[in-house]
Amino acid sequence: MPDDRPDLRDRIRFAVIRGTLWILRCLPYRWRVPVAGWIVSRIVAPLVGWRKRIRANLARVRPDLPRREVERLTRAVPDNFGRTLAELFSPDDFVPIARATPFEGPGLAALDAARAEGRPAILVSGHFGNYDVIRAGVIHRGFSVGGIYRPMNIRQFNEIYVETISKIGTPLFSRGRRGMAEMMRFLKGGGTLAVLIDQRLPNGEPLDFFGQPAYTALSFAELALKYDAVLIPCYGIRQPDGLSFRGVFEAPVPHTTPEEMTQALNDSLEAQVRAHMGQWLWFHNRWKDIRKPAKAREA
Fold first, then answer.
1. Do residues 237 and 272 touch, judged by C-beta distance below 8 A?
2. What is the 3-state secondary structure (H, E, C) of 99-131?
3. Helices within 122-172 (DSSP H only)
4. How far apart are CA 17 and CA 23, in angstroms?
5. Average pLDDT of 244-269?
6. Pairing between strand 212-216 and 205-209?
7. The predicted structure's pLDDT at residue 11
8. pTM exceeds 0.85, yes or no
9. What are residue 230's DSSP bridge partners?
10. Is 254 left (phi over 0), alpha (psi -120 to 50) or beta?
11. What is the residue-averaged pLDDT of the chain?
């Protein structure tokens, strides 16, 4: 019988995470969020090598940026990430802000029309701004919105994580065979999914992102075609005060081929990132070259 007890390293990591969250929760929300951003930007990012990764990614796809701007982004990117984490683990404070966020754009009318027709919808964003603004805000508008999450490696932390994001809204579907089957049933029944498209996946297609090939999953475009779901790019854009947001729902992506539709989603995200460079996860190794298995290429 396998021993599923956490090892010493996981127990230490969990203790550090739990202690940090406890300290942050002692602060008022208006301070908790910027303090979390400062901790991640000024302490965590240099220790774990995120600044080096940010510089490398920017040198690859935006070599035109002045050095001063690159250095600003090495601080701004992890700051936004830290703020997002604090918001995620403060659902009682964050959800009211998300609900009050103004939403705009042609995708809103398309989303309402889909609900009126009983048609499913897929809301596509990236690790940009705070993507849960969209999920929480759309739920507040009366939609049933499902989210997809990747289980955390540390079991105790994963339990806290799932419990916390469940307070923003349910249902939630875990990445994996069972979760994906549940997600497809939900979508087939006319539900709305909120998903992220900018993670590097070895079984994706090398589509363009910032002029470079980036392996991107076609699965959401394929689901949109299979279930006749409206496919809407949308973004929760952090505002200059660092605490509030603006929700943008772009026009739905027309149904063509999975490759063309997914490229349109990449292009949409790229345009938003270019307009708000500090709000995307530039320390993600998005352009790492992956040799896809032959089986995946032939599928």
1. yes
2. HHCCEECHHHHHHHHHHHHCCCEEEEECCECCC
3. 132-140, 155-168
4. 10
5. 98
6. antiparallel
7. 60
8. yes
9. 121
10. beta
11. 88
